[in-house]
Write a structure and sequence with these properties.
This protein has 238 residues and is an alpha/beta fold. The strands form two sheets. A six-stranded mixed beta sheet has the order 6-7-8-3-9-10, with helices on both faces. 35% of the residues lie in helices and 26% in strands. The chain has one domain (2-237): Rossmann fold.
Length: 238
C-alpha cells in the first residue's frame, strides 16, 4: 500500500529526515515512535504532502505521489489528523464533518453506499458525537476535539489514516474510547493506520509493526510479534 523509499525532507534548506525507508501493507497498523524532536511529525507531514521531498520517492497504492499536492493525496485515500487537530473552531461539529463530504463522494467508497451511511458508522464508533453535533468545535474539550478530528478524517473514506500524537493531553477515558474505535476500524474496514506516539503503551495492543526514528533516521522497524515493548523503550531511551 505505502512505500517510502529513501525519503529526505525538512523545512526550507534544513534537512530533518534522512533516507527514511518504511513499508506498510493494506490493513496494517504501524506505530512510529521516538524521542521528541527526532522527525516523526515531519515524516507525517511529508507523507501528506505538506513538506517538500528533497530526495526519494513515496509510492501509494502503486502510484508515485511524491509530488502530489495534499488535496490530491486526500482524493487518493490519505486521511490526516495532525498534532493539534486543526478543526474549524467556529463551525459546529456537524459542519466540520460535512467538510469531508466532497472528498468522500469523489472517492466512491466500495464499503458505504452514501456519506450518511459512513456517518452512521462513525457515530457507532463514537456515540458521543451525536450529543456534540450542534456545538462549535472550539467549545469542546481537547479529547472531544480529537474525536471530531479522527471522525472528520475517517469521513473522507480513506484507505490510510495518519494520526499524529492522537493521545496527547487527553483524559484517560477518551484515550480508551479512541483505542476502542481504532480497534473497531481495524476489524470492520480495510484501512491502514500510521500512528505517531511516544507513549507506546497506549498504542501497543493496536499495532502490527513498530518503527523507531532517531535524529531523522530510521533505527528500527519490525513486526510487533518479533520484538517486545521493553526492547522498543530501550531503543527510544538510548
Amino acid at each position: 500500500m505505502l512505500s517510502i523509499q529513501s525519503i529526505s525532507s525538512g523545512y526550507g534548506q534544513t534537512l530533518i529526515l534522512k533516507d527514511i525507508e518504511i513499508s506498510l501493507s493494506s490493513s496494517e497498523y504501524l506505530l512510529i515512535t521516538g524521542r521528541n524532536g527526532v522527525g516523526k511529525t515531519t515524516l507525517m507531514r511529508t507523507i501528506m504532502g505538506l513538506n517538500k521531498v528533497m530526495s526519494g520517492k513515496i509510492m501509494f497504492n502503486s502510484v508515485d505521489i511524491t509530488f502530489y499536492k495534499p488535496h490530491e493525496r486526500a482524493l487518493m485515500g490519505l486521511g490526516y489528523v495532525p498534532q493539534g487537530r486543526r478543526l474549524f473552531p467556529y463551525l459546529t461539529v456537524q459542519e466540520n464533518l460535512l467538510v469531508s463530504r466532497s472528498t468522500f463522494m469523489n472517492r466512491r467508497s466500495r464499503i458505504f453506499v452514501s456519506f450518511e451511511d459512513m456517518l452512521d458508522f462513525i457515530y457507532g464508533l463514537f456515540p458521543i458525537l451525536i450529543k456534540l453535533l450542534k456545538k462549535t468545535a472550539g467549545s469542546l474539550s481537547g479529547g472531544e476535539q480529537q474525536i471530531v478530528a479522527i471522525a472528520r478524517a475517517l469521513a473522507t473514506g480513506p484507505s490510510l489514516i495518519l494520526l499524529d500524537e492522537p493521545f496527547e493531553g487527553i483524559q484517560p477515558s477518551i484515550v480508551e474510547d479512541i483505542i476502542r474505535a481504532l480497534d473497531g476500524i481495524k476489524k470492520k474496514l480495510m484501512i491502514s493506520v500510521i500512528l505517531v506516539e511516544h507513549k507506546i503503551q497506549n498504542a501497543w495492543d493496536l499495532v502490527d509493526k513498530v518503527c523507531v526514528i532517531d535524529n531523522g533516521r530510521k533505527v528500527f522497524e519490525n513486526y510487533k510479534q518479533n520484538t517486545t515493548m521493553q526492547n522498543v523503550l530501550e531503543l527510544i531511551s538510548i
